[in-house]
Specification:
10 helices; single chain; Arc Repressor Mutant, subunit A; about 200 residues; mainly alpha; Tetracycline Repressor, domain 2
Length: about 200
């Protein structure tokens, strides 16, 4: 087990948490989140399973923490990459590209499989963690409707459908049957045509 090298116990705990979540990120690219075990994560992070369980009592808690980290990263990337004056269509293109890049960078099972793996309570918490991403999409579509660029009588329902279209490319992306840029262009084109005012 690594020695404590941080200035404080709090810093040490933060560093260990970071190592654990980085381990989940690396493992998810190789074997997928659903196949990762707590033993795998501990080994990849260079800690014992006992230490891992001190931070995350089970796989559901670990995946929730990881999802929260990925969500924050997505939101920061979206805000960083888009100028304030970007059009709704430009924002939608960036949203789709970042979502697809996230699916590729952190492969995970679909919603039904995650629900079966995590159980209904943890799955509901997971849905709450990703709600900020859906809120961004709702805002993009609402702005497009207001500007007259988009037509969407029910904005939240439209956002759910757009997320479903993005999610449909998860397996082709992960399997390598479609490239990220091709998937992004295809999904964006489809969605923009569907939203055309």
């Amino acid at each position: 087990m690594p020695r404590i090298t941080a200035a404080t116990i709090g810093e040490h705990r933060a560093q260990t948490r970071d190592r654990i979540l980085q381990a989940v990120s690396r493992l998810s690219r190789v074997q997928g989140i659903d196949a990762i075990s707590m033993t795998d994560v501990a080994s990849e992070a260079g800690i014992t399973r006992t230490v891992l369980y001190n931070y995350y009592p089970d796989k559901a808690a670990l995946l929730l923490a990881f999802t929260e980290r990925v969500t924050h990263y997505f939101i920061e990337s979206f805000e960083r990459e888009l100028p304030a004056d970007a059009s709704p269509a430009e924002r939608l293109r960036a949203f789709v590209r970042l979502q697809l890049a996230g699916l590729l960078a952190h492969p995970h099972p679909g919603a039904a499989d995650l629900s079966a793996t995590l159980g209904p309570d943890a799955y509901q918490q997971l849905a709450e963690h990703v709600a900020p991403m859906q809120a961004i999409l709702v805002g993009i579509i609402a702005d497009g409707v207001e500007s007259g660029d988009f037509h969407a009588p029910d904005v939240p329902a439209t956002a759910r459908m757009v997320l479903a279209v993005i999610g449909a490319e998860r397996v082709p992306l992960i399997s390598g049957t479609i490239a990220l840029e091709d998937a992004s262009a295809m999904v964006t084109g489809f969605v923009l045509r569907a939203l055309a005012a």
